[in-house]
Amino acid sequence: MTSRMARILTMLLVLLAGAAVTGEPARADTGDITFSVPSGTFQGSLTVSLGTTIGGAEIRYTTDGRPPTATSTVYPGRALTLTATTQLRAQAFTGGAATGAPGTALYVARSFDAQHDLPLVLIDDYGRGKPGRDYVDAAAMVFDTTNGRTALSAAPAVASRAGIHLRGQSSASFEKAPYRLELRDDADKDADHELLGMPADSDWVLRGPFSDKSLIREALVYDLGREMGMAVPRYRFVELYLNVDAGPVAAADYQGVYMLVETIKNSKNRLDLKQLDEKDTTLPKIAGGYIFKFEWMAAQEPTLTCTGAAATCWNYLEVEDPSPLNAEQKAWLTRYVQQFHDMLHSSGRTDPQTGYRSWIDVPSWVDLMILNELSREMDSYLRSTYFYKDREGPIVAGPLWDYDLTFGTGGYFGNEQTAGWQYQQTRTPQANDWFQILVADPAFQQDLKARWQSLRRGLLSDASLTARVDALATPLTAAAQRNFQRWPNLSTRMIGPFITDTSPTWAGQVQVMRTWMTRRAAWLDGTTAWGGGSTPGPDPTPTPPAGAGCTAAYTLTGQWSGGFQAEVKVTAGPAGIGGWTVTMTYADGQRVTQAWNAVLSTAGTTVTARNETYNGALGAGASTTFGVLGAAGSTNQPPVVTCAAG
């Protein structure tokens, strides 16, 4: 057969595939195997032809998930017909020996199509049933939106072999469950993929708001923490289809609105600390970096054991990274945390040279307390409370994690109340008493008050918080309707052990959260809290004279193959401004795919960013920031940036 005839045959086979995906092939681990149809979904039946770039080789293939061997079925040279979800794996063989890199394509059968205005995640576990605590093999596909729309019949942006398992504590018992997703290559090793504009990685979490009927509580805290300067995972709202039976994907497999979230890990594009190898057992390398967390009644090994009085010792302190943690590293970190703990319980805790300020990054601990108290997350300080320590650095609070039981939802420990302190809650045995000790120091208390009052004049003002809730909720309007058709729990008071509001509409649930939040902030403004006796109002913003303006500084904060993240700092000139517009003109064909704290529009190579309602007014010399995620080729020079007031 001539090469021209082969190309024509391949084109005809793709056309005959009918409902198979079209467009650019999804990223897949195809190795030295060619597939006439790229990975994607299909309806009815699908025909696929195989080829190889290795001359003179025969192809052997499997459809049961196992890698091909010398005894696997020989590809007969004619198209294969698929009628069910199939993991098609193939390998070239020469003289009976495997030659070149194996390849895999994923084809997920569906019985219908569905149009959506949020990105989609589709997972099919080949009929293995609902995932439990152990990983099960699955096909994972991610469909991004184009002009605000996508569908199951669209070409997936990413298709990957994967493993999925159930995660979480109380939330794991919900019908709408959270999952851990691990993307894998053809050798069952980690496969790093960029998902929905987020930097490439293999490890992700699918968090499904269920007790949080607003759907946005966790996203709100993440966004606030990010702008406050804390370490926060990136996320995107998606809708999930999870098929756990042997049939095609059906409408009943729809799982509702989820957050696709980065896991917390020490890697270049996540929490970029010094890497600890197993051989790093002496100073200075053994001093970091580490990630550890409190998980009350749920910590898993490796854990750090406190020594001393049981009444004051910490409990349930789990090391997240490095993994594995060798014995020398565990011993070093245990001693380090013990020394910090003992110092906090000593009379010298406030010493400016040797006290807690020489051990911790105070601003991050202050910000964590402010977010915990404002949201009154019921597990604050006790569960999913992360810290990290780099090699040369102090103990930093964060990254943020697990904020669904917030702003009045939960109630199990009384946190539906807008008055009172969350850090004073008691559980036995305690996780730690570190924050109670810090708050007892007048200087730390003053740090809290000053930071709170500053934030209330901008980021955490009532107007700003209300605008942020609206900005998060509006894009979910149609998806929320689908979510609550699938999970009609709006009027159910008890979701598992948690007390929730019973407003019968999603919009009502969002309003309940908003009202609770403003009442909570008002209490924190009071004389018994951080307000100093009056509710801080917005900073006065003078009317800008003619010609008053602003400047914008563009900083590349992260870059990876095919993508980048940048932050833009907008600063008012000598007079205050009521709004701003930043223009970024890219010269290397970059494409901005996502932004926060700004409203974007694009015309050719020029991206225009305008302020949100909550961050437009800036006093003289005051600043705010917004961020962007984008796609880039081999070069990624910073754009030409201008700023105009108004």
Q: What report would you give on this structure?
A:
The protein is an alpha+beta fold. The protein has four domains: 3-109, Immunoglobulin-like; 111-207 and 234-262, no CATH class; 285-441, no CATH class; 550-645, Immunoglobulin-like, CATH 2.60.40.290. It is 19% helix and 30% strand. The protein has a seven-stranded mixed β-barrel with strand order 11-12-14-15-18-20-19. Strands 2-9-8-5-6 form a five-stranded mixed sheet, with no helix packed on it. The longest helix has 19 residues, at 506-524. The protein is globular.
Element layout with pairings:
Layout: H1 3-16, E1 33-35, E2 40-43, E3 46-48, E4 50-52, E5 58-62, E6 73-74, E7 80-82, E8 86-94, E9 97-110, E10 115-116, E11 120-124, E12 136-143, E13 150-151, E14 158-166, E15 179-184, E16 193-195, E17 198-201, E18 203-207, H2 217-228, E19 235-243, E20 254-262, E21 290-295, E22 303-304, E23 317-321, H3 327-344, H4 362-375, E24 383-389, E25 395-397, H5 434-439, H6 442-456, H7 462-473, H8 477-486, E26 494-495, E27 498-499, H9 506-524, E28 550-560, E29 563-572, E30 580-585, E31 591-596, E32 598-603, E33 606-611, E34 623-631, E35 640-645
Parallel strand pairs: 2-9, 11-19
Antiparallel strand pairs: 1-4, 3-7, 5-6, 5-8, 8-9, 10-13, 11-12, 12-14, 14-15, 15-18, 16-17, 18-20, 19-20, 21-23, 21-24, 22-23, 24-25, 26-27, 28-29, 29-34, 30-33, 30-35, 31-34, 32-33
Helix pairs in contact: 2-4, 4-6, 7-9
